[in-house]
Design goal:
Number of helices: 5
Largest sheet: none
Helix content: over 70%
Order of helices and strands: HHHHH
Number of domains: 1
Radius of gyration: 15 Å
Length: 132
């Protein structure tokens, strides 16, 4: 139960920050820099959000430093994030999932996929860094 709560809270922090940054990206950065550059510019900020959110979540829920627990927390958060993104794409933007995926920039899309992997692994990676 603790993993479910922790994964959900971790997701909520990252989603809230990503939603706010997405508004800034779409309204101001993308028209100025272009879509790819705007998405890539957002990545370091989101990585910082992921690290801080994972760190706070681990401390708040006192999760055991075991790999299965930490990875389950991160994977649950990423699962929630993907569900929320799909719901927003289908609901707010009126796109099909195929249209959305087909319209992604290959460079920024790859960076986004890698950032999701990092988000999933971050609770475990922070646990490993804390032991060293």
């Amino acid at each position: 139960m603790k993993v479910i709560k922790a994964g959900t809270v971790y997701f909520l922090w990252v989603f809230a920050a990503g939603f706010a940054l997405g508004v800034v990206r779409e309204l101001w950065l993308a028209p100025w820099l272009g879509i790819r550059a705007a998405e890539l510019a957002e990545m370091p900020v989101m990585l910082l959000v992921v690290v801080l959110s994972a760190h706070w979540t681990l401390r708040r829920f006192a999760l055991p430093a075991t790999m299965p627990t930490r990875l389950a927390t991160g994977m649950l958060a990423v699962g929630w994030l993907l569900l929320a993104e799909i719901a927003l794409v289908l609901g707010l933007r009126g796109l099909t999932l195929a249209e959305y995926l087909g319209g992604r920039d290959p460079v920024a899309g790859t960076a986004y996929a890698l950032s999701l992997l990092l988000m999933a692994a971050m609770p475990w990676l922070l646990g490993r860094a804390g032991r060293q």
